[in-house]
Amino acid sequence: MGYQMQIQLHLSQGLKLNALLTKANTVDEIIYAGKTSLSLHLYEDTKALLDKLQSLERDPIQVLDGLFLECFYHLGIGKVKQCQTLLKSLHQMLEDHVDVKSRKQSKRYLLGFLVSGMVHKHSDCKTSKMFLSQGIIRVKTLLQEPLNCEDAQYLADLHTLLLKNLGQVCLLMSNLDEAAQVMIECTHKAMQYDRWTEWQDSIMMDWTLLMQQVGYQDKASILLNKLKTSSNPTVSSVAQSNALLLNMDSPDWSYLLSQMETKTFYSKSIASYLQGMKHLQHQEYQPTKQQMLKTIEFTQIACDTQLQTMCLAILGQLFQNTEPQQALKVRLAGLDMARKKHLPQLVLAIGHDLQSVQPSDTLQQEMNETQEKMEQSKAKAREQLQAAFPTLFQKEQ
Q1: For the CA atoms of the chain, what is the radius of gyration?
Q2: Distance, CA of 49 to CA of 42 (rounded, Å)
Q3: What pLDDT sits at residue 390?
Q4: 141 burial via Cβ count (<10 Å: 0-12, 13-18, 19+)
Q5: Of 125, 70, 33, nearest to 341 (Cα)?
Q6: Within its chain, how far is the Cα of 393 from the centroid?
Q7: Nearest to residue 272, comparing CAs of 252, 288, 284?
Q8: What SS3 class is residue 359?
Q9: C-alpha 222 chain-centroid distance
Q10: Nearest to 68, CA basis, from 48, 96, 93, 100
Q11: Which of 25, 97, 142, 148 is the most buried (most CB within 10 A)?
Q12: In this structure, are residues 170 and 380 in contact, taking their beta carbons and an 8 Å threshold?
């Protein structure tokens, strides 16, 4: 029995894969085992396989596949800064060694759009959106051609993942109506391509975050409670952090926070931020400052510009009474980051703080225009949500 068949048999029978993963010896076996371990969030196993791969001689395409695996591994554990370095090598390899006219090789070229979009997602929304949108256009074109079963399934999965990440980027940019439109298509495609069971938690988390942004907190809470125990570490961390932020006096708060700190750098960043907010709630200002600075260190590893800007906003408030010039410096840096990275919610939040100490007609006009656009987008998104979830919103219709 071939190695890939053995893994599939173990998966179908619900058996643990750890021992089998270590038996991968050839380059192709290691790459296949790595993809499998990543899909199951077995990051330690993936790291061991990547280390094993480095010692083997590989042709250019196998080197490229190894780079993809390494990128997805670092994305999984939240070391996005490392991915940005790898991305340059990956793009060069794609340009030098991939024939886009070859169906088999063009799949790797298309995968490059997904990886690029994911790497830039939390650090540069505009660039991320460009890569993901281009990838979707190219995949849709290929899906209209005659395909064998393997190619059709690969492109279907890629299409869904591109849509999913594009929806997340639109959420970060507060383009809520566009996010809803993309997420509806993503949900439909996941069901159409028979991938709903596999990606349900991750997709529903995106819907939950959208509901929060448009003001449906009660509906979002229903979904969050179901997602806190998700097997997907990113989903469970986001769900758990929402619950912890809303209920800081919970007797289980410290224990649940400690569980988040053992996961990925994404969850470490969020856990550190939550710890800072806990100090702030208790008016412990110096520990709050220290925790926000620590969080910024984590966000630089995870390339999470949104959370980093949120920390700068908090630091600006903390410095205001004791070091007003430092407060101004921090707030201006946060506002500049929010503008450059297309984060309108944070433009409003930091802009409001700045207006209270240093009024500016130009900034006020920018804030008014930003607020108007966000309200229009929110209203459209609410309509789309009610149409997408008629049972959940039936009392309001």
Answers
A1: 22
A2: 11
A3: 85
A4: exposed
A5: 125
A6: 27
A7: 288
A8: coil
A9: 22
A10: 93
A11: 142
A12: no
**Alpha-carbon distance 84 to 344, whole Å?**
24
- In angstroms, rounded to a whole number, what is the distance separating the alpha carbons of residues 5 and 255? 41
- Which residue, among 268, 271, 315, 326, has the nearest Cα to 292 in the 3D structure? 315
Contacts of 308 (CB under 8 A, 6+ apart): 295, 296, 299, 300, 337
User: Nearest CA to 64 among 87, 41, 47?
Assistant: 87
Residue recorded with tokens 């819907």: 207
- pTM for the full model? 0.90
Please give the single-letter amino acid code of residue 234: T
What tokens does 38 get?
């990543």
Give the phi and the psi of residue 282 in degrees, each rounded to 5: -90, 10
Residue 261's pLDDT is what?
A: 67
The three-class DSSP label of residue 204 is helix
Q: Rounded CA gap, 265 and 198, in Å?
A: 23
At residue 140, the pLDDT reads: 95
Contact 117, 165 (CB under 8 A): yes
- Tokens representing 220 are 């979002």
Both structure tokens of 59: 């042709």
What does the block give as tokens for 18?
A: 């750890």
Q: Amino acid letter at 266?
A: Y
Q: Which two tokens stand for residue 27?
A: 């380059």
> pLDDT per position in the chain (397 positions), as tens?
789 999 999 888 888 888 899 999 999 999 999 999 999 889 999 999 999 999 999 999 999 999 999 999 999 999 999 999 999 999 999 999 998 777 777 899 999 999 999 999 989 999 999 999 999 999 999 999 999 999 999 999 999 999 999 999 999 999 999 999 999 999 999 999 998 988 999 999 999 999 999 999 888 888 888 898 888 888 888 888 887 887 787 777 887 788 776 668 888 899 999 999 999 999 999 999 999 999 999 999 999 999 999 999 999 999 998 999 999 999 999 999 999 999 999 999 999 999 999 999 999 999 999 999 999 999 999 999 898 888 877 655 4
DSSP 3-state of 23: coil
* Separation between Cα atoms, residue 288 and residue 188, nearest integer Å: 43
Structure tokens given for 300: 């630089």
3-class SS at 182? helix
Angle ∠(87,93,94) on CA atoms, nearest 5: 90
